[in-house]
Amino acid sequence: MPQRVLVVDDESGVREAMRQLLEYEGLDVRTVASGADALAQYPEFRPHLVFLDVKMAGMDGLETLAKLKQLDTGAQVVMISGHGTIQTAVEATQLGAYDFLEKPLDTDRVLLTLRNALQHLSLASENRRLRADLEDRYAMVGESRPIHDALAVIEKVAPTAARVLIVGENGSGKELVARAIHRGSPRHDKPFVEVNCAAIPSELIESELFGHMKGSFTGAFADRTGKFEQADGGTLFLDEVGDMSLAAQAKVLRALQEGVVTRIGAAKSVKVDVRVIAATNKSLPDEIAAGRFREDLYYRLNVVPITVPPLRQRRGDIPLLVEYFVAELGQFDGLPPKAFPPDTLEALGAHDWPGNVRELRNAVERLLILTTGDTVTPADVRRTLGDARDATLGDLASCDTFERFKQEAERTFLVAKLGEHDWNVSETARQLQMPRSNLYKKIEKYGLSREG
Predict the structure, then answer these.
(1) Angle at 323 between CA 452 and CA 421, to 5 degrees
(2) Residue 31 within a domain
(3) How far apart are the C-alpha atoms of 319 and 340, rounded to whole Å?
(4) Strand locations in 267-364, DSSP E?
(5) Does 44 lie in the same domain as 96?
(6) Degrees, nearest 5: CA angle 6-8-9
(7) Helix H segments across 371-451?
(8) Closest Cα to residue 360, out of 394, 320, 330, 333?
(9) Domain boundary among 96, 117, 134
């Protein structure tokens, strides 16, 4: 279907010339002689682009532009005038005009402007589609009481500027809560910047958050903006904030108090407007008691607390989550949909899900890939969820020496523990009560990676 263009000009010669030019380009063209006619035709014709004369009898072009924008905030309008002035062009731009052309119209300039405007429209449409897809991928799914309670708090806090502290186990959906708050806030069209504080070595976290200047330390080959600056005007999500070093905590506290950040090696501070949302899987009061977290920062972050329930506390949501994951994996990963009958869902509901919603999604993906046929059965669930354990026992039993057995057992143990903590090395090392540097050495020794 051809794209539609509306030409508004009180000169019949201009209207006819524009009609011939634009129809030759394969466009559906409609012409009118006044602003009033343009406003009458616009809702029915729904043009992709409007060429609008400035000087017309009765309602002039600028007044027509303002009324068009009231009808459709996304209206794409190019102003044309034989009496163009800088002031008129500025006023048209302030009212939302895409471009400004002077008469006599140059054919090449008209066509260039036309193509740029339609391309801009296409990109805007694609951006809206991608944004909608992204929101679908980060939807919060569930009808259980704990989820309703969390959504009720999100709905109240999102429109405000209040800081939020999200608490929950690994894989329970803390990032989804943060994104839902951002989507519901006045900052929704600004950046959402995420920092996983546990995944960044303590010696690099300050550079990651606040940026650095060239030459400020070994390896600083160029100036770099930090996450606070990148999130200016939007939302900064500090995931696993409980793993942040005390030195970085002090700087974050200053940024929250004063609204400024200073890059490493910089002489001047930079003002930032950032809403901070933090998340943790730890008890920060316990971390404060142990001297690992600043009490003053805790009270700055914990203005509105939200607790995300583990999946075992909302097993009734598992059927909805499975349905959602099947649709999502089909749409974004091309996996064929399969049926999950009630007895299969019951088998999934009986699992403990220590990895919470993230573990359930991975299980659904494995079942869609590995199950033969169009229906997933309880036997498929038992076989798939037990595969890793059965394979591990078989591998250990096949070791030909005791030393080989110890190595394989250690490797298997580390893979399991890293998986439980979503490959958060700092948290895994803390749970295992071993130095993080030792864990990094063992990861390197056994060639471990998230992909297996």
Answers:
(1) 30
(2) yes
(3) 9
(4) 270-271, 275-280, 304-307
(5) yes
(6) 145
(7) 378-397, 402-420, 425-432, 436-446
(8) 320
(9) 134
> Residues 105, 121: one domain?
yes
Contact 228, 210 (CB under 8 A): yes
List of E strands, 47-181? 49-53, 77-81, 99-102, 164-167
Range with the lowest mean pLDDT among 74-78, 134-138, 176-180, 308-312? 134-138
Chain centre to alpha carbon of residue 220: 28
pLDDT of 137 > 60? The answer is no
The answer, yes or no, to whether residue 399 has pLDDT greater than 90, is no
Averaged pLDDT, 238-254: 93
Q: What is residue 83's predicted lDDT score, i.e. its pLDDT?
A: 72
Q: What is the pTM of this model?
A: 0.60
Whole-number average pLDDT of the chain: 87
Q: Are 91 and 79 in contact (CB under 8 A)?
A: no
The answer to whether 337 touches 326, Cβ cutoff 8 Å, is yes
CATH number, position 207? 3.40.50.300
Q: Which range has the worst mean pLDDT, 113-122, 132-141, 189-198, 381-390? A: 132-141
- Closest of 3, 55, 4, 13 to residue 34, by C-alpha: 55
Confidence of residue 389 (pLDDT cuts 50, 70, 90): very low
Domain residues for 42?
Answer: 4-134
Cα separation, 280 vs 129, whole angstroms: 32
Q: Where are the beta strands (DSSP E) in 36-105?
A: 49-53, 77-81, 99-102
**19: domain CATH number?**
3.40.50.2300
If asked whether residues 121 and 9 sit together in one domain, one would say yes
- Read off the tokens for 109: 């300039």
For residues 107 and 187, membership in a common domain is answered with no
Residues 299 and 336 placed together within one structural domain of the fold: no
Query: Is 421:172 a contact under the CB 8 Å cutoff?
Result: no
d(CA 48, CA 52): 13
Q: Are 287 and 293 in contact (CB under 8 A)?
A: yes
